């Protein structure tokens, strides 16, 4: 598929990408979260193994714009599963897309590290249940690898 301009969303995920992972609240109350909206897919819940993805739709892409940070992320829609592996200890979790986000272009160049292991640019938001599988919620951000399971 030919792209007409450089800002077109990428069509494929050619391999794993590294970036920052954070967490967010959605759906019914869970842990540190009070009740909130169900996300762009209408299924998001803080207590479920889910995530927000910056290229879940054209509307989502127009808000998040990871390409402005030099990152190409494939179009993946509601329910698509990713494996998120912490670069700080290697724990991993498989989650499903339930929302749009994070707004990557607001965090271009942001860097999180654990020791000498670092990653740049906030690429994925996990629900608290998912994030707590790979890191303490108090850490807030972690370098991670995002791949398909």
UniProtKB/TrEMBL annotation:
This is SRCR domain-containing protein. It comes from Nonomuraea salmonea.
């Amino acid at each position: 598929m030919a792209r007409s301009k450089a800002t077109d969303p990428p069509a494929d995920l050619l391999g794993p990408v590294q970036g920052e992972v954070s967490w967010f609240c959605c759906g019914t109350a869970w842990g540190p979260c009070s009740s909130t909206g169900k996300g762009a897919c209408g299924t998001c819940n803080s207590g479920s193994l889910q995530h927000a993805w910056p290229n879940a739709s054209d509307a989502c892409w127009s808000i998040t714009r990871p390409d402005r940070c030099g990152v190409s992320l494939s179009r993946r829609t509601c329910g698509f599963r990713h494996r998120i592996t912490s670069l700080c200890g290697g724990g991993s979790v498989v989650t499903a897309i339930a929302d749009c986000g994070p707004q990557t272009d607001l965090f271009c160049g942001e860097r999180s590290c654990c020791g000498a292991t670092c990653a740049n640019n906030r690429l994925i938001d996990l629900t608290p249940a998912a994030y707590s599988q790979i890191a303490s919620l108090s850490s807030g951000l972690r370098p991670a690898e995002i791949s398909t399971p």
